[in-house]
Amino acid sequence: MEKVNELVKEIKKNITQVTASQKDEVRVMRAMMNDKEYVVDVYGKDGVEGTFCPSEAVRAMSSSVLASAAKIPQAEAIGLMENYEFKKSEASNLVDLSKEFVSTYVHTGRKLPFGGRSDSDIGVSLKEVEAGMRTYPKQTGVDANGKPVFGHGERYVGAYESLKVHAPCPAWKK
């Protein structure tokens, strides 16, 4: 079983550019689901308000589903889930569900706060970008040394949706 903090360090150490990686998403999610020692502090306007353990949360949800579906006592379901190791396919499903939740929720028009952490208080909301002309860097030639020379190009872009990130200085840092 991979530990979350070690996995995050490994991924950070081995990346050369910021790109998406479905493989890493699933690895991190699976580690979070299985690593009972991974706990984060949750911050509010006055500082630390509590902790959150993703493994405990997913096990509590799973034991509740198991107890209801199998019609067994909750205590028995908790015992069964205590030693269960979540699989790659389950982590992949949870990654997909999490992404779809964010994508769907922002369409309500409300901001989605991700919860405060020691150095951040991040949230996102939907931003509608109007259609119009956009400028972009465009190579216009080559200088005497063979290096490219850039100017600006323009192109019409239709209306689209984007995410606006809200990341003020956390109140507990002020």
Secondary structure blueprint with pairings:
Blueprint: H1 4-14, H2 22-34, E1 40-44, E2 47-52, H3 54-70, H4 74-82, H5 88-105, E3 112-117, E4 120-129, E5 132-142, E6 148-157, E7 160-166
Antiparallel strand pairs: 1-2, 3-4, 4-7, 5-6
Helix pairs in contact: 1-2, 2-5, 3-4
Walkthrough of the structure:
- With 174 residues, the protein is of the alpha+beta class.
- The chain has five helices and seven strands; from the N terminus they run H-H-E-E-H-H-H-E-E-E-E-E.
- The protein has helices at residues 4-14, 22-34, 54-70, 74-82, 88-105; strands at 40-44, 47-52, 112-117, 120-129, 132-142, 148-157, 160-166.
- The strands form three sheets. The protein has a three-stranded antiparallel sheet, with no helix packed on it.
- A hairpin with a 2-residue loop joins strand 1 (40-44) and strand 2 (47-52).
- Helix 1 runs antiparallel to helix 2 (22-34), helix 2 (22-34) crosses helix 5 (88-105) and helix 3 crosses helix 4.
- The two termini are 39 Å apart.
Index terms:
single chain; 174 residues; alpha+beta; two-stranded antiparallel ribbon; 7 strands; 39% helix
Mean pLDDT: 95
Beta-strand percentage? 25-35%
Q: Tell how many strands the DSSP assignment holds.
A: 7
Shape: elongated
Question: Quick one: biggest sheet?
Answer: 3 strands, antiparallel
Biggest sheet: strand arrangement: 3-4-7
Oligomer: single chain
**Estimated helix fraction:** 25-40%
Q: For the record, give the distance between the C-alpha atoms at the N and C termini, rounded to a whole number.
A: 39 Å
| Class per helix and strand makeup | alpha+beta
In total, how many domains does the architecture comprise? 2
